Amino acid sequence: MSQATTTLTPADLISRFTDMLGPVGVLTGESDTAAYCTDWRDLYHGRALAVLRPASTRELAGIVRLCAAHGVPMVPQGGNTSMVGGATPDDSGHEVVVCLSRMNRVRNIDPHDLTMEVEAGVTLKAAQDAAREAGFMLPLSISSEGSAQIGGVLATNAGGNNTLRYGNARELVLGLEAVMPDGAVFHGLRRLRKDNTGYALRQLLIGSEGTLGFITTAILQLHPRPRAIEAVLCAVDDAGAALRLLGLLRGRDPALVQAFEYMSGTGMDLVTSLIPGATLPLGERAPAYVLVELATPRPDADLREYAEEILGEALEDGIITDAVIAESEGQRAALWKLREEHAEAQRQAGASVKNDVSVPVTHVPALIDRATAACAALVPGIRAAPFGHMGDGNIHFNLVQPEGMAPEAFLARSHDIMDTVAAIVKELDGSFSAEHGVGQLKPYMMPQWRGGAELAAMRHIKAALDPHNIMNPGKVLPPATQGA
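Structure for FAD-binding oxidoreductase, as requested:
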């Protein structure tokens, strides 16, 4: 793709940006921009010409038109929670980071359509709270929901804990407004369940990781708020037993299963030893655990009796070895803390290599067993700590450095480790990117996994919408010289 050239000096550009956004909308000092130039995992460190913070779609469209006219690359950034460096600028100092955190209004909640209209800078937690206060539920739930913003959540097609029941982010989006790479505004804020009118452009933007435009506002589907919720932590001997438990739950009443999260014994040990206040509420540690959440909007459902009955059956059949049901909202939160603190515990334990992968649900036990053995052979002493959304086949197959090994030495093996896990995932008909995206960490894997006609089509779409490659360059797609 040809790159447009700028006729303005950096100082001239910053002056123009300031005229459009005001001083509060433009950050240039190193101390002000530093937090926007490093990713959450501290893997990537860049520099930005400026951090731009528009407060409206009109302001955003204006700065995009200016950037397009002068070939200024733009890096969209929400809460900066990307696990793959998808929102971090390069180190050239030529790119601008565009953060929509000032566009943070929940505009409307419609109780009849069961929809909410929300701007891109609203955090997922704030959107959830607004839905709850209105008597409904926004079911999308991820560990970083307190920081992650709606625009980034949709741009990465986030999955999360409730995908098993409600689907990924794209299943919850009815309409979008977006600013395209030339500054034109896509007006797609429709609340229609049925709308077969040409291509579904919103679905093209969802999951594009900011490479095709800026999502500014969304119409999200809400659901009835559950009237009864039961959270259960189960001890199991292995992932095969966890899969049998999932089959038992689905066979009895699949509509009740809201979340089904797998955790390895190694991962749980890290959480309980490194995270203050995280304690295992079972008599003994186990090789693996499952956190099950059952929920229903029915006011007359005796969910506790159902949970006790099915757990009794699972114990009798040897599927689980122990279990505890939360007796209060506080205990439910404590059980979820054991799951949600896995990433932080692994960070405290040392360097880690993260593999956000998915396989057909039936292959999850094979993935865990085979990848654990393969990585142990590759790096003796490595600590495999897989966890995640077993109910939809998405496992975060994370590996922590061996005790006593230098973090730098371990991270130097990152691609070897990732490739070892990916080879097994490929044999099991899976994907190397389940919900975290490709970012700048994994584009090198695209030709092997999405080569041929698929990658060629992606390149054509990118070239058509962003011919000068100024929207989040270096993310998702590998260089044109690599692969198809």
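The CA atoms of residues 212 and 461 lie 9 Å apart.
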